[in-house]
Amino acid sequence: xxxxxxxNPKLIQDKVHALLTRLSFKAINGPLYANGKIKISPKxxxxxxxxxxxxxxxxxxxxxxxxxxxxxxxxxxYGMRGGHVFYGSCYIRFxxxxxxx
Length: 101
Prior knowledge:
- With 101 residues, this protein is α+β, with helices and mostly antiparallel strands.
- It has a single domain, classed as Killer Toxin P4, Chain A, CATH 3.30.430.
- Helix content is 38%, strand content 26%.
- The protein has helices at 9-28, 59-76; strands spanning 33-39, 46-53, 82-86, 90-95.
- The protein is globular and about 40 Å long.
């Protein structure tokens, strides 16, 4: 988790939540992973995120795991420029820089 703090933590938290929720929906209706970005400023600054579940999970269990991870991430990373949560069956991450290809 990045120790750098953002200027407008509530706005960032809302944007990160929206991004991870959107990616979660995409993941459970497809290959059990997704990545993407969301614009957070008029100047084009983005937040990048990824979500992933292990292949042994059903869509329902994947969604449950990701929902718990998103909630935990929101609690642990408020105001931070990045964060991640790893569980045995799912993973989520967000950063202010692109970290996936």
